[in-house]
Amino acid sequence: MTLFVALAAVFAVIFLLIWRSHALRARRAEYIRHYVLPKGLYAKLTTRHPALTRKECELVAQGLRQFFLCYLMSGRQHVSMPSQIADDLWHEFILYTKNYDHFCRLAFGKFLHHTPAAVLSGGQATSNAGLRRAWTWACRDENIDPKAATRLPLLFALDGKLGVANGFHYVPDCSGVARSGESGGGGSVHCGGSFSDSGVDGSTAGFCDDCGGSSSDGGDGGGGCGGGD
After folding, report:
1. Bridge partners for 171 per DSSP
2. Which residues, 6 or more positions from 206, have their beta carbon under 8 angstroms from its beta carbon?
3. From residue 93, how far is each of 5, 9, 37, 73 by CA, in Å?
4. Share in percent of the chain as helix, strand, coil (round to 5)
């Protein structure tokens, strides 16, 4: 009987810890989704991209929030930034030092460092894994199958949608798409299907790590910047 009570107590504690972790992650996700960026941030963004309308600035902000959600939902592992224009907004946000620090503490429980936007490339294992995580969780945020996407999640669609010069333009399916020179904004065209292909760096690390379930927010994740401390 004593053993039964002890086991029951252990399972109760484990259940409570798991529940608290999921509840914390849910609160943080809601905070990120509804966070209002500091005043003046869109004006800073339009100095880099003068053609942007207010509505387009808000779309970029929505994409940046999705990036932050990818970091949170991945268990705060390294997540790489796939959008040049969202990266520009992120950089401007960081310059609002107090606001950004406060946001990070409430959204993640720690500071999220910045690194520039990136694309899959040979010899960049950490960055590539971070991009695959970003793809996986951005797809899951919009109920897209990351293994067989028929459309792009916002974070990966932004540069192409807004015609960002030298941005990172994506299509969901690689079939018949040239790897460069087909973007109206002057950037190369990249494929969502590449994230499940080990041909780039001999690995698919970070891709669909946990497609069968949810990741805990309690993990401290891998090191590095741009998606991990």
Report:
1. 191
2. 77, 128, 129, 130, 131, 132, 133, 136
3. 52, 46, 8, 21
4. 50, 5, 50
55: which 2 tokens? 């509505």
Cα angle 113, 206, 28; round to 5: 50
* DSSP H helical ranges for 35-153: 41-48, 54-73, 84-94, 97-107, 125-141
**Residue in this structure with the two tokens 């107090």, named with its chain if needed:** 98
Detail the DSSP E strand segments found in 95-213. Answer: 169-171, 189-191
Sequence-separated (6 or more) residues with CB below 8 Å from residue 13: none
Would you say residue 213 has pLDDT above 80? no
- pLDDT of 221 above 80: no
Residue type, 153: P
85 vs 15: CA distance, rounded Å:
41
**Both tokens assigned to 40:** 């003046």
Span 116-127, mean pLDDT? 91
pTM: 0.81
Which residue, among 189, 115, 200, has the nearest Cα to 157 in the 3D structure?
A: 189
Give the model's pLDDT for residue 22. Answer: 72
In this prediction, residue 23 carries a pLDDT of 83
